[in-house]
Amino acid sequence: MKVIIIGSGLAGLTAASYMCREGHIVIIYEQYSEIGGVTATIHEDGFSWDIGPLLLEGLAPHEKLGKILTELGISDKINIINEDRGQVLPDFTIWHPKEYKGKYWRKEYFKELFPSESEGLDRYYHFYDQIMTLMAISNRLEWTKGLNSIWLKLKLLPKFLRVKKYMDKSAAELMDSFFNEPKLKAVFMGILADFVVKPSEFPGLGVPVSNVETAFDKRIPLKIKGGKLPSYHYIQNGCEQLVNAFASYIKENGGKIQTDCLVEKILIKNDNAIGVKLKSGEEFHSDIVIASGGAHKTFFELVGKEYLPSDFVENVQNLVHMESVLMVHLGIDLDPTPYQRAALCYYYGTYDIEGAVNRCRSGDYHEGKEGFLLYLPSLHSPKMAPPGHHAITIYTIAPFVLSNGDWASRREELAEKLLIEAEKIIPDLRKHIKTKVIMTPLDFKSRIFVEKHSFGGLAPIMNQQNPPHHTPIQDLWYVGAQSESGGGVAGVVAGTRKAILKLLKEI
């Protein structure tokens, strides 16, 4: 078959890889001048920075992305570095202790900070263990067939029934059922600010999934009852290594990738997708079209509402997106390790996650005062900076549309204010800047095919139905962070693989 794929982010590259593997004729049309979408690595003056993913889950050999890389035979194309991260709140700091104190050291640390919450912490960590076991079995189930699959399903059911009572709870309700102290609740709900999703609308079962203890201490043994825990890794020398591994596989198997080729329309005939029309006016026909990118752009502009069922149109119109980010990349001649001991740390300036998300969604930008993160890629990959220098990324969530002014006119001002906040962690940071690259929401939007840039795709809120991989249009499939797979590198890649295997089975 001839297959046209729209977009060269990880979803498009994964789709192309699996279609090429089956011997189909594949071409990717990418509207930007570079491939990779937000998984790209940018370079300037000898410095390199990732613009999207940081510390990634799913890359280990026992995890879904690691298994996919092995399945395609490209796992040897990237080197992964097992790491963890820090978490700093206004009144206390969470870094793993120098001497390993066991897998529950955070629980004991929180008991010291909040003695009245000891019983709640014991109950929460019992619940956490149950969720981790469920995840471990589920991850194995995806790659198991036959009698082994039936056996794992039988093991899964009773364990699920133990946590079923929490299924309909939001993150806020879940935390209320374990803790009274708002500061402790913020420890486990802080990461939701990164998704720009309110604790009152995020599914409660997602709290332990977003707070896996191995993210805070890489020394925790991965083996548990039922399988293995998730682990967290950097990709040595940047995420472009992952992008390039997929791209090389595609080209080696006969696929083509064309950049600077904007798809203007998906051609529809008799409710079937039959190809695409480029901005240049050229039309190319195909047996299958696989689209990635923003849901609004894909279905309302490329397809057209007139071809879609009314309930599908209504669902896409009502989708809640994450907000964007302001990201400042620096090349510095300063050693930052006296101020931040590892490559990644989240700094929270507020305990009010619900209010912070509400303000961001209304266009109120906090200028870094409510939180940001510092990422130092040259700590784990020295080649990402010249000798004696370091690459550093400072970023924070930000509204796509500001309530006061706009990103074009306030670009430098707001970047400077974010750096002032970062200097509270690394003193005199601005005096040591050799190179600076500012990325506003508008810069991100220019790189990917979206109406509104949302860092990570659709907001993971309760009862939201992301558009399915198999669309209402025959021979049109939809993949990526705004599809049913949801966001995250491992989630996008695994979800796309699942979609393509389903496509191949159907045809």
Measure the end-to-end span.
Answer: 10 Å
Outline type: globular
Which blocks of ≥5 consecutive residues have pLDDT under 50?
Answer: none
CATH-level-2 architecture of the largest domain: 3-Layer(bba) Sandwich
CATH superfamily of the largest domain: FAD/NAD(P)-binding domain
Q: How many individual helices? A: 17
Structural class: alpha+beta
Largest sheet: 7 strands, mixed
Mean pLDDT: 95
What is the CATH C level class of the largest domain, in words? Alpha Beta
Strand proportion: 15-25%
Tell me the domain tally: 3
Q: How are strands sequenced across the largest beta sheet?
A: 8-7-18-19-20-17-21
- Per the CATH scheme, the topology name of the largest domain is FAD/NAD(P)-binding domain
Helix content: 25-40%
Counted beta strands:
22
Specify Rg, calculated over alpha carbons.
23 Å
Explain what the structure shows.
The protein is α+β, with helices and mostly antiparallel strands. It folds into 3 domains: 182 residues, FAD/NAD(P)-binding domain, CATH 3.50.50; 126 residues, no CATH class; 124 residues, 2-Layer Sandwich (Guanine Nucleotide Dissociation Inhibitor, domain 2), CATH 3.30.519. The protein is 36% helix and 20% strand. It has a 7-stranded mixed beta sheet. It has a 5-stranded parallel beta sheet with strand order 12-2-1-16-22, covered by helices on one side. The protein has a 3-stranded antiparallel beta sheet with strand order 5-11-6, with no helix packed on it. Strand 14 and strand 15 form a beta hairpin. Helix 1 packs parallel to helix 10 and helix 4 runs antiparallel to helix 5. The longest helix is centred in the first third of the chain and has 24 residues. It is globular. It starts with a strand and ends with a helix.
